[in-house]
Amino acid sequence: MGAIMLILSAADVRRAAPMPAAIDAVASAFAQLSAGLAAVPLRVPIGQAQYDSHTFFMPALLAESGALGLKVVSVFPHNQECYDLPSIHALVMLFDAGTGVPLAAMDGTYLTALRTGASAGVATRVLARPDARVLAMFGAGAQAPYQVQAVCAVRPIERVVVVNRSRARAEQLLGTLHSLGIPADCTIADSARAALAEADVVCCATSAPTPLFDDADVRPGTHINGVGAYTPALAEVPPATIARAYVAVDQQAAAWAEAGDLIQARDAGALDAARVVEIGAIVAGLVPGRRDDAQITFFKSVGNAVQDVAVGQLALSEARRLGLGTEVALA
To answer: What is the SS3 string spanning the chain?
Structure first.
């Protein structure tokens, strides 16, 4: 009998992988990554100058979980204006780790937003103060709702304040948060300083070329998640804040190749690379988490294929249980 592959839409993935379960899956993936139980080759980029585009091929194996897969994500920045299409598309494929048999292909665009949010959820769970009540969300783009959703899943957030250059986009985000059932009171901040004056947790999800706020405005005990600034030329968090923070990353090699916040802080003499830890090591109890209620903590993520494969494995398992998706015979 030939292999049967399951095809999952974004709606299927949304039903099969709720945020709390995705956070647990990503936590396990990070722990395996830091323990040397994951194989993650460098992603392979293919550029097309005529479209100003990049397509990335990102494989991963989680040995402990038995998850083997690949994400392909394409970025075509002119799609919207030229073809009325989204600029980013992604596909996640899973294979049987024991036989190589194809198991599933699923929408990776929603899954990417989900797993990126989940990474912030993992970091917030192990680094933020347990009594954190106020979240400041910098950015109102596609990633923002999932950052808020993840933080609210692991801390008793009562108030969310949004900081964004466009008030219209910020208002759209408030509507999305309401539709997601976020229980907190969600408002738009007058300024970054006003947001930080009350924030216990800060999420940054922008493509800012320079820091989004002043170090002097960051209160003691604040936890910061940074998931934007994915090239060395970008930075969301001031070097002075990084200098006084306990810094964790998703993976050392990727962070030092791509994370502008950290690279710029290191080059300015504000950060000793030797004191940066991996979030998976904190999850596994190999290194400590927050020292005390006054410590500032900073998690920087540039994304890793183990997140995609782990959440993909979760989605596949639950989709089978719930009877979701479309089966396709390959032979």
So the answer is: CCCEEEEECHHHHHHHCCHHHHHHHHHHHHHHHHCCCEECCCCEEEEECCCCEEEEEEEEEECCCCEEEEEEEEECCCHHHHHCCCCEEEEEEEEECCCCCEEEEEECHHHHHHHHHHHHHHHHHHHCCCCCCEEEEECCCCCHHHHHHHHHHHCCCCEEEEECCCHHHHHHHHHHHHHCCCCCEEEECCCHHHHHCCCCEEEECCCCCCCCCCHHHCCCCCEEEECCCCCCCCCCCCHHHHHCEEEEECCHHHHHHHCHHHHHHHHCCCCCHHHCEEHHHHHCCCCCCCCCCCCEEEEECCCCHHHHHHHHHHHHHHHHHHCCCEEEECC
